[in-house]
Amino acid sequence: MLPEVSKTVSLLGPSAAFFGYFIPSEWAVDYLIPWDFLFSVSVIYLIFGIIYPVVVVRTGMTSYQPGVERTNDYFGWNNGPFRFNAFISWGMVIGLGLWLIYSNRSHFMGILRSIYSGAKESETFGTPGISYRSLGIWTLILTLLNIIFLVGSNVPPFVAVMILVVQTLFFYGWTRYIGDIFEFWGVHEWFRWFYYDAGAISGAWPATPPAPVTQGSFSTSMLSNTAIQRTSVMGNISNLFNVFKLGAAHNTSPWDVLKVATIATIIIAIIITPFTVWWYTIMGGRLNLGPVARDAWMAGVEYAFLGGTPAPPIPDPLERYGLLFGGIIFVFILYALRARFPWFILAPTAFVAMPVCSWGHIWIDFMAVCVIKYVVLRIGGSRLYERTVPFAVGVLIGYGVCYALTSFVAWVLIAIPEAFTRLAA
């Protein structure tokens, strides 16, 4: 763990987020990430994690509170003139999703044509792949089922459609992000403010929160994060991208991967979900499950839908939509600059790592590996880099084996006895 050196550097003073962890497994993962991404994360964190907090505190634009160096919520979400976490998490994530659609528009158009024309497109995903028509038909079926599920749970129809649209773009954006970094850290709850606006537009509740506590507002708050996010026991849409990517690397048919995902979905629907409901019920709710922490960052949107004590700040609609559309436009500008100027290597996906770098305090790992990888490439080029990749992979495999073994031991020695103890009580 790095010392909190910001308190000892008089040039910067307090508020600069120098707190971080050295995590060997993160170094191994980061070594496999493109160098332009590592460089971009380092630059972005230098700006928003170190320089920006010092500037806004020294100029009096926001006040300093001890301990703000350990989280980026203080400056990124709650205080200061620019909520950069909201700009990234709302606008840039959706922008990445729209860019993914734009850059793969030929595939999307092929899917749409196959739906209304009834003809099977010759192009497929993978060899042998999944036809456009199959993708189109299943997309329509699943979309309809999700809308029926949400509306049947008293979510307002316009809000149900908005949830599906936003979640789709959200996970498209995170899928593009995972293509660079292999890991998923998205929190879809951030978008519930926009679902509140959709309900207000449709007349389901007042324009100003909180909404009256009704079945509709309760269902919207509870279900807006689950409609299409959990697609199988293997995780959400963007995590499944890694499964298909792994399948392609091993010449596994996408159809076989899809079959496994479908079987897993059936298992989780029939067995895991009812068991979870039963377990929460007999334990008396989530608060009695021991070390499960309440999601503190959700307090604001909980207040919007369910009332109670507001958790300031409640985002102003004008600022909220400015950050949303500003982030979308910024993504397209960055990609245009990368296409126009070969020297411009700032990666749009790297911005998405910013809200997470200080949560996990892993920014130092990105910076350190950025330097190491640069030195390796400068000394021995891609050949030396390829020769060192197996070492990073070995670290990850070793970490995974140790994690699996310790998890099994903890399950046998801690989880099972605790479960029987609680059931007996």
Strand arrangement, largest sheet? 1-2
Helical stretch count? 16
The residue fraction in helices comes out at 55-70%
Structural class by SSE content = mainly alpha
Task: Tell me how many strands there are.
Answer: 2
Low-confidence stretches: 1-11, 227-234
Rg measurement, Å: 23 Å
Main β sheet profile = 2 strands, antiparallel
> Which word captures the global form?
globular
Order of helices and strands: HHHHHEEHHHHHHHHHHH
> Per DSSP, what share of the residues sits in E-state strands of 2 or more residues?
under 5%
How far do the termini sit from each other?
A: 41 Å
Mean pLDDT across residues: 80
What does this entry look like structurally?
- The protein has 425 residues and is mostly helical.
- It has a domain at 232-282.
- The protein has 16 helices and 2 strands.
- It has helices spanning 24-31, 35-58, 73-78, 84-103, 105-117, 132-152, 157-181, 192-201, 215-223, 237-249, 254-282, 299-306, 317-340, 348-352, 354-357, 363-424; strands at residues 124-126, 129-131.
- It has a two-stranded antiparallel sheet with strand order 1-2.
- The chain is globular and about 60 Å long.
- The model is unreliable at 1-11 and 227-234 (pLDDT under 50).
Give the helix/strand layout.
Blueprint: H1 24-31, H2 35-58, H3 73-78, H4 84-103, H5 105-117, E1 124-126, E2 129-131, H6 132-152, H7 157-181, H8 192-201, H9 215-223, H10 237-249, H11 254-282, H12 299-306, H13 317-340, H14 348-352, H15 354-357, H16 363-424
Antiparallel strand pairs: 1-2
Helix pairs in contact: 1-16, 2-16, 4-7, 4-13, 5-6, 6-7, 7-8, 7-10, 9-12, 10-11
